[in-house]
Write a structure and sequence with these properties.
The chain has 13 helices and seven strands. With 312 residues, it is an alpha/beta fold. The protein has a seven-stranded parallel β-sheet with strand order 6-5-4-3-2-1-7. The chain is globular and about 60 Å long. The chain binds S-adenosyl-L-homocysteine and iron/sulfur cluster (SF4).
């Protein structure tokens, strides 16, 4: 074990606030070091979040998207995808199923689909909040402040808006027509409106460095996020990044563990993407600091079409 690594780990054990440079040392853990990193993350998860795994059902209600993110299968130029939109009643039925299975939170996610106006969505949120005792998280991408305000009034509790990468240039290259600044501005609005917020990033994006990954964690710490969704980038053949190498499970686990150390009280899901690249991805993530699982409540007939990446 390198001296520098053991020193940073020791400071982490004493709950000292780690700098971006310290986080890079942890992210760079070698084969003989990662077990110690994972163990500390697991201990911190137990100390601050307990041993319960939180289940948050997710309904992916529309795969229409007006954006063209280079990494995502829902991008509008993907003509190979069969598109679907769920009806309000179908979404409510899915919510009922999630409630029946004991989920305390329901996540409603979609591409950026203007078909669902804020009014339509507000009505769905109102019904879910009235009928079931569940927190509602929305993950609808970039919308106007007015839309976010209306949805908050309707009862939405949380909003998941992953920043994807803290590198402004990489963000712009990967998400044409949008900016990191715009994303952060929206996260600020959401906070002001009283939402709990979730951010997150992909691990292994082309052009990503350890400095950028450490920056992702620092950014989330600065924003004091309630949730951080961290998962590997998985290349999708139906996108411009189809032949790029994907993120590895090892690097994803190291990022998760480092995030747990830096964000002791933040909910960290064992992501579906981690489960997609390795048969034990989800269980391993739960051993490296993750404490949330998001079971898919999307009706089976639509599930195959929400193919953000292969193997989902
Ligand atoms: N449209 C909304 C929510 C749906 S996308 C939005 O963009 O915020 C949900 C998440 O899928 C994104 O935040 C992104 O992190 C993830 N994602 C997209 N393409 C991916 C890929 N190829 N590999 C791994 N995760 C991907
Ligand atoms: Fe649309 Fe979100 Fe996919 Fe971008 S990541 S193409 S906004 S669904």
């Amino acid at each position: 074990m390198k001296l520098e690594f053991s020193r940073v780990l020791e400071r982490a054990r004493r709950f000292e606030k780690l700098s971006a440079e310290d986080l890079i040392v942890l992210l760079d853990a070698g084969e003989d070091e990662s077990a110690a990193l994972f163990k500390l993350a697991d201990q911190i998860r137990f100390k601050y979040m307990g041993s319960a795994v939180n289940f948050r059902g997710i309904i992916e209600f529309s795969n229409y998207c007006l954006r063209n993110c280079h990494y995502c299968g829902l991008r509008k130029d993907n003509m190979e995808l069969a598109r679907y939109r769920m009806k309000a009643e179908e979404i409510i039925d899915g919510a009922r199923e999630a409630a029946r299975l004991g989920c305390k939170t329901l996540v409603l996610q979609s591409g950026e689909d203007v078909f669902y106006t804020a009014d339509i969505l507000a009505e769905i949120v109102l019904k879910i909040k009235k009928e079931f005792k569940m927190a509602v998280t929305l993950s609808l991408g970039d919308r106007s402040r007015e839309d976010y305000a209306l949805l908050k009034e309707a009862g939405a509790d949380r909003y998941l808006l992953k920043h994807e990468t803290c590198d402004a240039k990489l963000f712009f290259d990967l998400r044409p027509g949008t900016s990191l600044e715009g994303r952060i501005k929206r996260l600020k609005w959401l906070r002001e409106l009283g939402y709990q917020i979730g951010m997150g990033n992909m691990v292994g994006l082309p052009g990503q460095t350890l400095e950028i990954l450490a920056g992702d964690i620092v950014l989330m710490r600065d924003q004091d996020v309630e949730m951080a969704g961290i998962g590997p980038f998985i290349p999708n053949k139906q996108t411009p990044l189809g032949s790029a190498p994907g993120g590895t499970l090892e690097m994803t686990l190291k990022t998760l563990a480092t995030a747990r150390i830096a964000l002791p009280r933040t909910h960290l899901p064992a992501t579906t993407s981690a489960a997609s690249i390795h048969p034990h991805g989800r269980v391993k993530a739960l051993g490296c600091g993750a404490n949330v699982i998001m079971p898919n409540m999307t009706p089976r007939k639509y599930r195959g079409s929400y193919s953000i990446y292969p193997g989902k």
